[in-house]
Specification:
Elements (H helix, E strand, L loop, with lengths): L3 E6 L6 H16 L3 E6 L9 H4 L11 H10 L3 E5 H6 L11 E4 L1 H8 L5 E3 L1
Parallel strand pairs: 1-2, 1-5, 2-3, 3-4
Helix pairs in contact: 1-3
Length: 121
Amino acid sequence: MSNTFCVTITHCKTDPDKATLGFVVANAAQGSEKETMVFLSSDGVWCAVADEMTKIDEGAPFAPLKDLVDKFMKAGGKIYVCTPCMKKRNIDESQLIPGATPAGGAALVEWLSDGSPAVAY
C-alpha cells in the first residue's frame, strides 16, 4: 500500500464546490498520515492565489477554502501549481501563497509513478 496520495483540482472559480471538496479530501489524506500532494491545473490554479481563494466559501458544513488550504499546508501537505496554466491566466509566482510550487506535468507524473492513488475534482 502506498504511503502517498494525490488530489488533482481543476476548478476554483468555475466550480467552488469541487475546489472545496478537493481540499477536504486532501486534508483527510494528510490526516491519515499519507504524504499528500495537491496538483492544481486549469481553473484550479486560482486555489493557490490568496486574493482568489479567500472568495470561496461554500458554507456549512464546509470550512472556507482559505482555512482548508491553510490547514493542509500546516500539516505538511504539498501544493504544486501547473506552470502553463498559471501563464495562461497571467498569474505570476509572486501571487501564489507561501509554499505553493509552480510545476509542470512531469511533477505529477513522477508523484504518480510510484503507485500513488489519486482522485480528481
